[in-house]
Amino acid sequence: MPEADPAGALALRDLSIGVPDRASGWRTLLDVAALDLPAGASLGIEGASGAGKTTLLHVLAGIAAPRSGRLAWGTVELSTLPPRARDAWRRRHVGMVFQDFHLVDGLGATANVLLPVSFEHLRPDATQREAAAALLARLGVPGAAGDVAALSRGERQRVALARALLFRPPVLIADEPTASLDPAAAALVGDLLVGLAAETGATLLVATHDRGLLGRLQRRLRIEDGSLVPA
Ligand SMILES: Nc1ncnc2c1ncn2[C@@H]1O[C@H](COP(=O)(O)OP(=O)(O)OP(=O)(O)O)[C@@H](O)[C@H]1O
Q1: C-alpha span between 32 and 6 (Å, rounded)
Q2: Ligand 1 pocket check: which of 46, 55, 224 to mutate, most ligand atoms within 8 Å of Cβ?
Q3: Which of 30, 37, 50, 204 could pair with 42 in a Cys bridge, judged by C-beta atoms 3.0 to 4.6 Å apart?
């Protein structure tokens, strides 16, 4: 097992998370007094629909800002960074996997895996192409050049997983990654997600209702009545 990158250690203090609200201006979804995760750990987050799982993951990924409090990954105080600096941090440190894959139809699997390189306004080099092809082969995705629209849902999620892992990020965040898959595909994607996070030393955060996937994670918390409680 590789040593986990210290950039993947999470520390939250007095964090308050919510969403804009038309009537009151702001609706708090979740308050976290303290949460620490060592680099390389895995955490599952449960909670009823609308509890705030996605909002929490977005804050932890730096997509959205907390209302107040401290959020640090390693030595980076993410909660103090302006949006552009948060985006730059996220591109270098976080791999994201979503329930609905976020693939670009019309492109092949390899091209989809290489999309983060294009987001940096760069052309993928030979090493990156080889890394993408190797990941897809490792994940058992057939026909890397063919249109991803022709792939099964489980195969599409494996392409999304390869894309999240391309830069071997210290943090892997997955939002209901198995929810739209049949049981066999969900089990395979769950195994790969947990296995590859462990193999690369990444800290893994997963919001999910999938009991099988939750059972493979080291720690489980539940959003209940605006707090994070042991699940
Ligand atoms: N940008 C936004 N503006 C206003 N309200 C929002 C915004 N994003 C989410 N919400 C609301 O915040 C609440 C929490 O949403 P969130 O998507 O985080 O929940 P969730 O636990 O992930 O739910 P699900 O399991 O259904 O995906 C919901 O009531 C949602 O409608």
Answers
A1: 22
A2: 55
A3: 204
Q: pLDDT averaged over the chain?
A: 94
The structural domains of the chain, ordered by start, are 41-62+86-230 (3.40.50.300)
50 CA from centroid of ligand 1 (Å): 5
pLDDT in tens, 145-175: 889 999 999 999 999 999 999 999 999 999 9
Q: Are 83 and 26 in contact (CB under 8 A)?
A: no
ipTM: 0.96
* pTM summary value: 0.95
The pocket around ligand 1, CB under 6 angstroms, is made up of 19-20, 29, 47, 49-55
Alpha-carbon distance of 203 to 125, in angstroms, equals 27
